[in-house]
């Protein structure tokens, strides 16, 4: 009797998960995703994504460069406004990258065989927290055998990186607002954040390129 | 057989006839051969009970037909797994692992001791165990299809959506019958019959409705075994 109760209980849980996931599924969206990974459309999307990311990051660079200029000129109010603008741009940019990484994670399930996935290089980052994250990535990568698992880990680390970076930028900007004379101290950290967001974006695009390349290799 | 049971049986026969007619009209009979056989078996079995209750409304016939239905449902689960995941290397490997695990679990479940009693007690013990295992097999195929985002024909999705929850209801109904006997017999029958008729009506709706299938890229065709079977996909 107990075994039966457990069996039915487990079945109900499994059924609930299946019904929930099935309810969220959209067949047209599935067809679009397969078109993305199996046809030239994927490469075209990669090109568009690269252009879009470059354009957004240029705006971020412009805001912080102008903030530097304002700080050097002694115009604190202007510097603070430009820092706010930079912070808002990064806050708007990070969720977009998080959604892209989630979509890539879904697409990666559709690939039966993956190409070898290198871990991120700690030296590529400036912020201490992201350097530590990259070291963690290298460490965990040793324990994963299948390339699919390594790819999923890479996406998880990138996601974490974007979340951390957004928090760092937000806190740093708040600190400058709270204590204006720390502007000179916070600007170098924000510069490092600006460079690291570009590194994280490049690593994300590299992940998408790996995904599409491995698909092409698998079909051959 | 009382009038309520006769009504349920008649309703399920009509609904299944509608499903088969719809599959024929929409050229979907090749979607799943095992499922077609299952529908046919139920149509014949229930028709025999309705038209000749003195001869076929017996426990021995119930045992035989439920065993046959159980085997055909299991065959449907295996066929669906092969059609949807068979050509994907990673998906096929995972499906094989889960199927072996579930078959081992089924073996354990069937081997567990049963309360001493008559053959009817044994049958009432075994049926829900087998039904539960089949439900888990369907659920495993369903979850793998959802996890890997494998394209699925709407008829296959209807089979999974219908049979997986129904088998759980069936398990509960048979268990109620076996544990509480006469006291909850009517409740168990009503539960099982209502769920079954509802499932068949859903299948009839899916079989008859006209809806365009999503346009999958041609590169995906070698991976989708069912596309060769179903015209227009």
Based on DSSP secondary structure assignment, what is the total number of beta strands of chain B? Answer: 0
Treating each run of at least 4 consecutive H or I residues as one helix, how many helices of chain A? 7
Tally of contiguous helical segments of chain B: 9
Low-confidence stretches of chain B: none
The most extensive contact between chains is: A-B, 32 and 38 residues
Q: What general form of chain B does the structure show?
A: globular
The helix-strand sequence of chain A is HHHHHHH
Radius of gyration of chain A: 22 Å
Mean pLDDT of chain A: 84
Instruction: Look at the helices and sheets of chain B and give the structural class.
Output: mainly alpha
Query: Largest sheet of chain B at a glance?
Result: none
Mean pLDDT of chain B: 84
Termini gap of chain A:
53 Å
- The arrangement of helices and strands of chain B along the chain is HHHHHHHHH
Q: Radius of gyration of chain B, Cα only, in angstroms?
A: 19 Å
Largest sheet of chain A: none
What does this structure look like?
- The complex is a heterodimer of chains A (220) and B (233).
- Chain A is mainly alpha-helical.
- Chain A is built from seven helices and no strands.
- Helices cover 84% and strands 0% of the residues of chain A.
- In chain A, helix 2 packs across helix 3 and helix 6 packs antiparallel against helix 7.
- Chain B contains nine helices and no strands.
- In chain B, helix 1 runs antiparallel to helix 2 and helix 1 packs parallel to helix 8.
- The radius of gyration of chain B is 19 Å and the shape is globular.
- Classes of the chains: A mainly alpha (220), B mainly alpha (233).
- The interface between A and B is medium-sized, with 32 and 38 residues.
